[in-house]
Design goal:
Length: about 200
Amino acid sequence: LCGAGLLLKSFLLMRGIDPGYRSDRILTLNVNLTHSQYPAPAEQTRFFQQAVERIRALPGVQAVGAGTSLPLGGWSMSVSGLTIEGKPDADDRVSVVMVSPDYLRTLAIPLVQGRYLADSDREGSPSVVMLNESFARHFFPGENCLGRRIQNLGRKTDWMTIVGVVRDIRPWPEEAATPEMYVSYLQMTGRQMGH
C-alpha cells in the first residue's frame, strides 16, 4: 500500500513537470540498421530519407522526424573536448543528437532564437548546428551564440555554424536538462543513424 501510494504521488508530480516537448499524438519507433545491409553511411542516410518521405505521405500524418535518440529514450551520444571558436577547449560532456530537419518541429520543441534546421542543410552546404538553452547558457553566458562556430565532430577541418537555439528538454522527468547539440544527419554522412 505504501509503495502504491508513493508511485501514485510520483506519477502525479511527473504530470506537473513540463518535459519541454509535445508528447501527445506522437508515435515513435526504433529502427536499427544492420551494417551488413547498409554498410555505407550514405546508404543509411538514404534509407532514413526514404522512410521519412513515405511516412509523411501517409493519411493523417502531420509531421515526421528522425533522430539518433528520443526524449526518455535512455541513450544519447555524448562527446567532450569540443573546440569552440574563440574559447578555450572544453572538457565538459555534451549530448549530440543527429536529426532529420523536421525532428525538432515534429516534437514541437520551441525555437528560442535563430532558425530550425532545414532540408537545405545537407552534405555540400555549410555545416550548421542547433543548441539547446543549457548549452547556450553554459558555453556562451550572457552572449549571443548565433553565428558562432564549433569544430565539426566528423571533420576536424570543418566548422559548424550555430543557427538556432531550442528550449531545453528533460532527459528524464526528474533530471534537469544538460547541454545538447542537434546536427542534421544529412550533413553527417560519416556517422550512423538509429531511431
